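Structure request: DUF485 domain-containing protein, Cellvibrio fontiphilus.
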Amino acid sequence: MHTDSIRQLPEYAALTRARKKIMWPLSVATIIAYFALILTIAFNPTALGEPIGDGVTSVGMLLGLGVILFCMLITGIYVYYANRVLEPLTRAIVQKAGAQS
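Returned structure:
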């Protein structure tokens, strides 16, 4: 099946819409999280060095760990969405493309 005919399939249009629907919000959320940490480092580094309680753990360490955990959450959301929405659409496209070749 030719690439142009695959692009004409309704499943392909649904796949591209579904990818954009999840891609932009998750990308923006990730960029905001990273830039918030970097801007805090740049403009208020002393606040990041403040210890939490009487221990040695600082605010910066918790924020860094928070960004890592947030990105893991974002990845989990994407994997869930990909398995539930994107993968079935991809399989349908592959089936139709195979049937028409």
